[in-house]
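We treat protein structure as text, and this decision shapes the records that our systems exchange. Below, we set out a record of this kind in full and without editing:

***
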Amino acid sequence: MRATPWSAPGDDGRTERDGWAGAGSDDPSTFCGVIVLNVRRPRALVLPALPERALARLGEVTDLIEVPSRPSLGFTDEQLADLVVETGATVLVTDGDQVRTSVLGLHLDVVAVMGPPTSVDLALAAQRGVNVLHARDRDPDAVAELTLALMFAVSRHIVTADREVRRGRVYQGKVPPAQRHRGRRLTGRTLGIVGLGRVGRAMRWRCEGLGMRVIVCDPQVPEATHTLPALLAEADVVSLHVPLTAETRGLFGYTEFGAMRPGSIYLNTSRGALHDLTALVDALRRGQVGGAGLDHFEGEWLDPSHPLISLPNVVLTPRLGEATGETREELAEALVEDITRLLRGEDPEPAPTPASI
């Protein structure tokens, strides 16, 4: 049975729940493992570890409720609903936790997500009148840098070679490692960028600096040089940088992977739902696609039993595109600013248009 919500503080600043220190106390106390720091303003339940400056700013406009530990994959909808009820929070700051029927049926005013709101039922939130905020911009430099790292890792077999060195299996079958892991030089190769938003542009100038020829497909951008079929026929490396919309979902399937140059490299640091993963596995096994670097998976996490895991020509990362300290601080501060504006009755800063992502 779900716990009853904490009552509002009385005139003396205390709640009716025994053993809990009210606003007049200098010492925070704990209930169900949740640290409560103050009680007079809107309560903000903060699940991810926010940078200190952003957390301090949020503490200026709300009473912070920090969770000392959370499941590695985030809270389920039911777990989070229990926590919201127990704390009486009206502002929820989350990162990958499930915010669906149970949570959105409560008394929340704001759900703020550190990252894309893929774990939030946006339609239900709108129906229930819950404001959903999320980091309003991507860090194009951080994402482009990770995309470059995946491109190098795939083209030069870095991950496989590293594993062999660690296992003492450098010379397998008397074949020298330089022969077994012979890669490809990227200078002079053709990079095909699908989607010339901010990340695509950041990727373009970096790869031009490497001496690569860059071609572009984007129906929204006049400077695009190619249609998608033409790009796939020419590119040695295909890098996907488009937003996930109804039109782009499943953009790459059997037809698109089959149209790529034999042995070419496929990179996706955007969204997992942009491609058909079964079609990609098939293309990798046949050698039509020579290697892949992926940072996103539909549903956000890849099942360890998925056949993609066993393929040696694939490098996988778990949503690390914006996982830098600098990016985290900037996104957190922007999100807290949006929360602050909303609590003051102002509109948050507008989110970027899909073409700018």
